[in-house]
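Handoff note, outgoing to incoming analyst
You'll be picking up this chain. Sequence as last confirmed:
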Amino acid sequence: MARRLAPTSDEEANAQEAPQQQQQEEEAQDEAADEEQDAEGEGDDRDEEEGQHTGTPKGAKRRRINGDGDSVPSRAVSQEDDEAEDEDEDEQPSQSQPAQKSEFKTLPRDTDGYIPGSIVRVQLKNFLTYDFVKFKPGPYLNMVVGPNGTGKSSIACALCIGLNFPPSILGRANEVNKFVKIGKEEGYTEIELKGLPGKPNLVIRRYLKADSKSSSFTLNGKSTSGKDINQRMAELNVQVGNLCTFLPQDKVSSFAAMSPQELLRETQRAAGDDRLTSWHEDLIKFGKELRELNTKQESEEAARTQAQQRVDMMENTVRLFNERKVLERKQAILSCVIELDKYRTKRINYSRLKKKQRAMNAKVQKLKQKNQPVRARLEAMQEEGKEMQRQYQADQNLQGKRVKKFGEIYNKLEDLEEGVDLAYQKLETLKKDEEKRQKDIKKFQIEIEATEAEIEKPLPETEDVDVLKAEESQAQQERWQLSEQTGDIEREYRAHFDRRSKATQDHQDAENMIKSFDNVDGVKLQNMLKWHRDTHDAIIWLRSHRHLFKMPVFEPPYMCMTVPDTRYQAGVEALINSAQLRTFVAQCKEDIDTLNHHINDSQGLGRKARIVTWFRQYNENQLTSAPMSREEMKQLGFDGYALDYVECPEGLKWFLKRECNFHRNAIALNERNVNIGAAMEAVGRPEAGGGASFISGKTMNIVQRSRYGSRALNNMTRDIPNARNLTIQTVDPEVRRQAEESLRACAQQLAICEEERKGIENKKAVIKAEEAKIEERINNIKKRKDAIRQVEARKVSLENKLKRLNQQLIGLKKQPGVEQQSKKLKRELGQKNFARADTIKELTTLMKTFIPEQQDLTLLKLKLLQNQANCQVLEELMQQKDDKFNQAYAAYTELNSRYKASKAESERLLVHIREILAERDPEVIPEADRIIYIRDEYFKGLAEWEDALEAVGGDEGELWRQGIEKPAPPEDAQEGDLVSIEELEIACRTAQEQLEYNNNRDESVVRSYEEKKKLIEQLTAAMEARQTRINDTERRIKRTRDKWEPGLRAMISSIRTKFSDAFDRIGCAGDVELMPDPDYAQWRVDIKVKFRDNEKLQLLTGQRQSGGERSLTTILYLMSLTTLAHTPFSLVDEINQGMDKRAERMVHNSMVNVTCKEDSSQYFLITPKLLPDLNYHRRMRVLCVNNGEWVAENANGDMKALLRSYKAAHGAA
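Most recent structure output, in case you need it:
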């Protein structure tokens, strides 16, 4: 069945009747008008501020209303943004850009009236409600009308799908295959777009399949890709995805629901210069980069400041450490030189003794040769004596072994004799043992008979053990069940205890919190918790750990500093920054180190934390004095210095002076009393420090003197805000209410817990009574079982006793008799006597050998004694004959002893020196070597000269005549190299004493100092580089904003005028306002509307206004964009739903006027209904959708023929 959509009249021909020359003249006039408007834009802004706006008085009155509905000048920018513009212009006035045109031109219109990118022809097959349709829209307004369900919105779908825009734009199906008509396997869309000047039109066909999500394209009959189609659409600036230019039926509500930020971006794309969007994106990107850079810069600045503070604190320690290093090196060099010099002295003495020892030894050898014959005889006799001594020692050892063996044999003989005596004793006691054995046998027999009689007695009657076990098992089971109940109660009690403990703790916490609300310190602590958690937790930690510190450590000024006179609070707070307000102040280095160690360097708070700490050694001389005396300050109109109005601990005032200059910053409440020029001269005097700050009224004046040139005074001013941190703040009532509600809830919970406790205690008492009864039953059963066990145990005990007695009786009976034992003992006695005889025989034989050998040993001993006597006589004879040799030998012996002692001492000192050198720093050894080399060479030469002087009897003249001069100090010797050893030792002890006074040994402080210095250098370099990037980014932002903002403001101003005028015409009020923001991504356009006299302007949202109001606002806003739009075509679908007739008529007539101008672009208005007596234009084209199941075939459905018949019947022209 055919479907048809055709023009209702000859509009297609009429649209092309306007002469081309006339069109060009109108375009030229419009361009001239635009340029004139740009030149007078500033005047227009003033007119707009003064309320000179055309329209109905009622509408104009409504339009000049701000967001709260109050009457204000109608401006699209905020004062803050104007100030930002002024600052930018002051900085770089040469870079300001001329205002952009408020209206933008599309591509040039062709002779047929179409502009490039507008739709020339649409052809659909098997697409949604259509089997087949083909129609040609006009180049201006196209009004598509038809009943609901005929396929009007299908045309919007066809434009979106056919030009390869995503289906999600339509708010319907998300897959392209869903747009194939139901029951059909495939279909297509074909859209012909006007081509660029001099180029053919673009015919884009898209093939769709019902069973596939994929599709294909052809461009002018040739296959192409979707990417190529997208590129062509971008070249023609087709914006189907922009709600400001393409608003499908299902997306009408989405327009009002768009965020103001999205509305700004879409408005730029639809009505702004092509570059506005790219400039905006650049600003967003640059702004984000700038924020990140500034955040990083602030973070590293804080880190650098902290590091610099640590470096300043460690500087004195590092200086003392370096001084200690110098002293240690000096002491090490001196100690090495002293030890080496001692060794050198000992070595020289050793060399001298060695020479004397060698000379004396030669003299002794010479005298020794004279007594050589006697000495030879003496040596022969001594050698013979040694041989006799060796022989005597060997024989003596052999005799010792024989004596040892003799003793062993003798001991054996004694043992045998004792054995014989013992055997005789046993024979004598055998009779007595037998009598005792017989008595024991009778005793055991009597006991056995008595035990058997006892066993035969009958046992007393007892209960059945199995019955008792059953009773016991039943009682145990009942006790186990009670135990289970007890466990349940215990668990219930533990849960109750946990609840009660938590409720008690919560109750205590709530009470403490409520008490703290009435306490200034408590309020400040609560505020500090919100402001900076690490500082809050550190304050709590400090209050409970004050015993760790030598002196009081002051909490941050925010906590312990007040300004009693509230009039000065703002001024004082302006002089101290937030970091200083959170600074902990210590009074000695040990305390600042302790605080940093526990909080910043380790996890003293149970986590990583970072707080600001401060310490400087108290020294008033380090402070710059106050710039004015009290009298001069009063004369200039000041009330006093900031320090005069502060109450705080005395120790904290050093921090306020040193870091915040409270003693130098003057304050005057009444700025009219202060002569700013005179005050600048007073605080800027070079002798007063060359600059300071002072406060007059609500203005901070920062006076500085230039460091170069004429050293002129500069004054920077800024307004100071109201005090926020130094005021006594109250607790949020909602927080107090919540705390009191928590207290009441905790009290109720405690009451409930108490009732629970009583119930649990009652249960426990009942179960305990039951347990006592069961325990009594179990004990009774145990007693009865014990009675049975005792009876059984007695029987077993008697049986065991009987068995034991029988075994003992059998043992006694099995013992051998007296005769057997007597024979055995006599046999042993005979064996021992034979062994005794053999031992005596062996002892006799050994004695026969020992006696002759002992006689020979005695004779050898006598010979040895004779030899020793002879040797002694010869030695005395030789000594008597050679007294001179003896004297020389004695002198040699004494000298040799001294030589050996000196040698040993030198060797000991050498080992000691090597140990010392091994322990010393390798850097010390070269300097010690240099000094010792100079001393060694000099003192060695001096010793040789002294030896030569001694050789000539102390006559220096003789040495001079021999050409031997006293050595002079070496030229390369330094001061102190050749001093005496005593002076070296004094210098070494002095260095050691200085080292003992200087206890700075901690190298970790130096490493930390170097690391902090390196970190500061790295941070400084990184911050300088980042500052360059910040400056570059700010310049890029400035340049881009100077290009973007004027065009944006001009565009919004034009939209605002048209939007407000449109609302004026319907007796309502509307406004469009550009809302700047530091974050360029948050710049937005606010649409505010007012439909009733008794309400204020309200922001357009997706919920606040009714559907009709939203639709009206949407179409009026889109119409305001129409003259600015540079897209080739726009579309709105059923925007008039919910409007009243008056608004709908106004919208229709306004749209016809706007979209049918000579320079208007193509526009599609889809509507299901029309009001009577609407305005129409010869350039607009009305397209009636004649589609449905009961539409006649082509021959019977000629719409043009029907139209001609209607005109003829009604006499229409």
